Amino acid sequence: MSSDNMKFLGLDIGSSATKGVLIEDGRILKRIIRPSTPNMQTAAAMMAREIDAPDAAIITTGYGRELFDGRTDTVSEITALGMGINAVFPGVRTVIDMGGQDSKVALLNNGKVVDFTMNDRCAAGTGRFLEVMSRVLDVPIEHFDEEAKSTTELQPITSTCTVFAESEVVGLMSRNVAIPKILRGLLAGIAQRVAALAGQVGVVEPIAATGGPMHSQAVVDALSEALGTRVRAAPHPQTVTALGAALVGIKRSGRALPRVQWD
Predict the structure, then answer these.
(1) Separation of alpha carbons 42 and 40, rounded Å
(2) pLDDT tens sequence across 28-42
(3) Domain residues of the chain, as ranges?
(4) CA triple 107-12-101, angle to 5 deg
(5) Closest Cα to residue 180, out of 209, 146, 212, 204?
(6) CATH tag, 1-89+239-263
(7) The predicted structure's pLDDT at residue 241
(8) Any residues with CB less than 8 A from the CB of 5 and at least 6 apart, and which?
(9) Which of 59, 81, 147, 209 is 20 to 30 A distant from 178 in Cα terms?
(10) Same fold, 1-89+239-263 and 91-233
(11) pLDDT(1) > 60
């Protein structure tokens, strides 16, 4: 444990997924995502076994950060998010994180959180909203980009509640409104809600985005349009907070933060 090349494992134990990043001397040795259900504690323990790094310091973050008995330390999601995104995009000032059950926006200065806000009371601005609409539209999230590119038109969705939006979408489909137009309307709506959230802390460029939905360029484009400026999606967007947790562990150990190879 005293080696300069000691391994650090960041575990982001979320309500929907558990993410793990194992790092040594700036090298990403493993990057894993697994479902958190039905039990976050079990999911974290299974991931630690799968990563199989018994000599690693384990820093946990996320909703379930206090649940894993094998942890070395814990860190808040916001702190880990700031540290992680600054390693991926040095100098980023605003980060938007769209998770499964909440969305967060943080204003940063050299990776340190200056201010933040989050939406954890309504699913309408989260990945859960996209999952529900994906099911209703019968369009897998991984096909959103293809569908969205097939039209330049959008059908506005007026409902801001997930349940009511679902009913509205079903009604539009029954009237044979084209699926791509509905999808673009849904993405514009969720982007506007996240942009409004970002407005609570003030948006400073450059802006980056993380979270599972950022695998979809259509989601990123909708955010850029809603904010009126470019938003860059982080590579491997779902594991950035886990990376940050590992980096927090390195910093707390007294070691210098490495330059991370994240591509």
Answers:
(1) 5
(2) 999 999 999 789 999
(3) 1-89+239-263, 91-233
(4) 70
(5) 146
(6) 3.30.420.40
(7) 98
(8) 24, 25
(9) 209
(10) yes
(11) no
pLDDT in tens, 72-104: 999 999 999 999 999 999 999 999 999 888 899
Q: What is the pLDDT of residue 100?
A: 80
5 has pLDDT over 80: no
The C-alpha atoms of residue 40 and residue 31 are separated, in whole angstroms, by 18
Is residue 76 within 8 Å of 60, Cβ to Cβ?
Answer: no
